[in-house]
Write a structure and sequence with these properties.
This protein has 146 residues and is mostly helical. The chain has seven helices and two strands. The protein has a domain at 3-92 and 133-140: Arc Repressor Mutant, subunit A (Orthogonal Bundle). A hairpin with a 5-residue loop joins strand 1 and strand 2.
Length: 146
């Protein structure tokens, strides 16, 4: 996972889900969970769970059978990075452990913590940015595959 992803508070699952959608979107035919996992170097069972979450959110469509696999569930320009983050994470940044340390309970500033306020403000900015970036916009920046 990139340092940028860590700095933004993204977990491995969110980062992998972003990349999985890019793999699926660029493929000429549906990809199996194993194919996506292999392309990204991620354990196949973990990728299968992420793809199930993306499917539940309508971001990908899964099809069983010999010609089965995953394809985009809707146009890439209609899904945002925020949609992806919400689909695969549990609370994502709003429940960040860095905002509620065990030591916070005994802190005299607990109810008016300036750091918590700053962090929540930054998270709000990241949320707004992610809501403004579509998967299609990211795809447009990629060099076409040969």
């Amino acid at each position: 996972m990139s340092r940028t992803s860590v700095a933004l508070g993204l977990g491995h699952g969110t980062n992998y889900a972003f990349h999985a959608l890019l793999e699926i979107a660029q493929a000429p035919q549906p990809l199996t969970a194993i194919e996506v996992a292999d392309a990204l170097g991620v354990p196949a069972p973990y990728m299968a769970k992420l793809l199930q979450r993306l499917a539940h959110a309508g971001l990908v469509k899964g099809r069983r059978g010999r010609k089965g696999g995953y394809s985009l569930g809707r146009d890439a320009h209609e899904m945002t990075l925020w949609d992806v983050a919400l689909a695969v994470s549990e609370g994502w940044m709003r429940n960040s452990p860095s905002l509620d340390l065990p030591s916070c309970a005994n802190c005299p500033l607990a109810n008016r913590c300036p750091l918590k306020s700053v962090m929540l403000g930054l998270q709000g900015q990241v949320e707004r940015a992610f809501k403004g970036i579509t998967v299609g916009a990211v795809l447009a920046q990629l060099t076409p595959r040969e």
